[in-house]
Amino acid sequence: MAASTRRPEHKAPPDIFYNEEEARKYTSNTRMIEIQSQMTERALELLALQEDVPCFILDIGCGSGLSGQTLEESGHFWIGVDISSAMLSVALEREVEGDMMLGDMGQGMCFRAGSFDGAISISALQWLCNADKTSHSPPKRLFKFFSTLYSCLSRGSRAVFQFYPENSEQIELITQQAMKAGFTGGLVVDYPNSTKAKKMFLVLFTGGHQKLPKALGTEEQQNTGTDHIPYSDKRERMKQIRGKAPKKSRDWILEKKERRRRQGRNVRPDTKYTGRKRSGKF
Amino acid sequence: MKLITHNMLTSKSLKGVNVGFPLKICATEVKEVAVDFNPEFVTRMIPKLDWDALCQAAESLGCLNDLPRSVNPNHENDEEFLKKAHHVLLEVEVIEGELVCPETGRKFPVNEGIPNMLLNEDEV
Ligand SMILES: C[S@@+](CC[C@H](N)C(=O)[O-])C[C@H]1O[C@@H](n2cnc3c(N)ncnc32)[C@H](O)[C@@H]1O
User: Fold this and answer.
1) Ligand 1: which of A84, A128, A160 to mutate, most ligand atoms within 8 Å of CB?
2) CA of B11 vs chain A CAs: smallest distance (Å)
3) Residue B19 maps to which CATH number?
4) pLDDT at B98 exceeding the cut of 60
5) Residue A186: exposed, middle, or buried by beta-carbon count in 10 A (0-12, 13-18, 19+)?
6) Predicted TM-score (pTM) of this structure
7) How much distance in Å is there from the Cα of B62 to the middle of ligand 1?
8) CA–CA separation, A171 vs A245, rounded Å?
9) ipTM for the complex shown
10) Is residue B107 part of a domain?
11) Which residue ranges does UniProt annotate as crossing the membrane (chain B) (predicted)?
């Protein structure tokens, strides 16, 4: 989100802003897809799930399912909630494996106690800081959201939010309401000194005080000067060791397509172009 | 909407509703899809499920078949049982219909497999 453009939250309420045209970008803009899935990888890492265990994850503001697909690729099953039916339609078109529903996070997460092993939310939380209706009070909606989220998480699990706060007051408003709802935790800011690569994560614990994970790109970390997030390399190497094809590789794509064919879905035929690197220009 | 989702979903965000579970399913279209069997995932989910609600839901959709009415205490070693649970939880989908709040009768439409849980401002 460039500083020169007006923030989407100021333009219209989310169910209006994320219309068909906006939702379409989430299938066509490869740069956007790449960024969302990188941030989801990092959120998943911060979620610190038990290694190699398939988990049941809530994706809040799941949109067109970009974040959800990253969860699938790591072997998890997810349920997504989003306020925009246009975004969810795109997710259906993209044949995501998660299950989705229309819902407003500010009205609360309506699941039974202890349902999920963890929750993630990518680029959605800042929307709750706005009052889109006269009856909306952001602190109240945030509290309702966090308190109901707390109850539907299993004990000891975490919720991780990548978000774009507008200013420090918003960060304070959000963290205050989260703590009031019973969470502990705080902010993890990756690459704090880079305008381009800086990313904010709110990491919340249900199980009492714990040490916050280390941010990337701080003094202790070697800053590579690019917005490439190194943990994904590590993850890929681990997967290779465990015998799974690295993500986005030709083999990985072929495997995924084969799986989908077995499920009787329409899958494009394999060609010599399948899984080829595209040139870096857009 | 898959039945695993239905088993977790409540209408307790509605003002005045305490439990809001299980939501009654009135389906006009149900679909079965094939999903890869993951015994570990199903095993991990079973303790979290409300098994009675799952059986009720499956029965109302006519897909209970021979799913046992109670959880086999040794379920992690019973592949037959896990496969049946897998099928009901992940392979049966409500595509069109309604979910009904057990306390207020409020209806939540399901379209294209997506339940609409949005509330009017005066219902919150
Ligand atoms: C930038 S998109 C990100 C979507 C997805 N997480 C991803 O990474 O691709 C933000 C999403 O948050 C959703 N959203 C905004 N406010 C919301 C609310 N109050 N309740 C539920 N979803 C909301 C929007 O509809 C939109 O789909």
Assistant:
1) A84
2) 6
3) 2.20.25.10
4) yes
5) middle
6) 0.85
7) 35
8) 39
9) 0.97
10) yes
11) none
